[in-house]
Amino acid sequence: MPGMENLPLSDGSRLAYDWQPDGDGAPLVFLNGILMNLRSWKGQSGPLSKIYPCLLHDFRGQLYSSKVFPEDWSMAGHLADLKALLDALELERCHLIGTSYGGEVGLLFAKAFPERVQSLSVIASVPWSDALLKRQVRLWRDLAEVDRGLLYDAVATCSYSGDFLERTGTFFDSRKAEFGKLPDDFFTSFVRLCDAFLGFHMSPESLGAISCPTLLIGAGSDVLKTPAYSRIMEAHIPNATYTEIPGAGHAVVIEQPKTVTGYLKAFIEKHA
Fold first, then answer.
1. Residue 113's domain spans which residues?
2. Considering the domain boundaries, does residue 230 fall inside one?
3. What is the CATH number of the domain that holds 35?
4. Virtual CA dihedral for 93, 99, 103, 106, nearest 10 degrees?
5. How far apart are CA 233 and CA 239, in angstroms?
6. Phi/psi of residue 84, nearest 5 degrees
7. Which DSSP symbol is given to 38?
8. What is the dihedral of CA 245, 243, 116, 112, to 10 degrees?
9. Is residue 23 part of a domain?
10. Is residue 86 included in any domain, yes or no?
11. Whole-model pTM above 0.85?
12. Which of 30, 135, 172, 208 has the highest count of CB atoms within 10 angstroms of its CB?
């Protein structure tokens, strides 16, 4: 795919990435949601790459990267992969931007490597999961092994607002068959990512150790990772700012790309 390269990792796997070096200042590093890929950020990376260098990549297990995991894989494993990518491109500091699963990886990375993170933007993410969220992710995990069509419907139902689905329902229906034709290892890797998420937990003390300026964006109609989670993080991260986008579902970066981009641009300008 044009613009995409691969970084070999020490265990023989590879990370797919797209490095857009034009622009000034510290780069923006985008971290995907669990079923996203590095092209899913076009509503943000398109306009922002005209101002700042931008780095997009697929996590291990996502569409364009290797589907190889150590046996004891957890979300913390993404930190070593991300650090290897930053080191390979000689990027000392960056603005981390993550949504959902990617926001949670961003929280872990900002705590583990504060010297590498100039600012952190966390969109529709959580510090831990309640019983309802865990049950939902377990359902996705199980559906990935038995019925890809139902998985697609289950994810869409939780990820988008009713208004957005009403306006774009035909488009989503047309992509359902395409989703079902993705390779088997995509779905087996999705199961591993779900398992990693189910083991993720950041205590209030861990959140309190995040020292960089942090923007928390909640989606007002998010039924999966509700804005209450972002409010919890606001209370514990010392240098955090919270904003909420009314009417948006969980996949707010896709539903309201211009609004998200506007908040990111203003925040990054403040902490450039």
1. 5-127+200-270
2. yes
3. 3.40.50.1820
4. -20
5. 10
6. -60, -40
7. T
8. -100
9. yes
10. yes
11. yes
12. 30
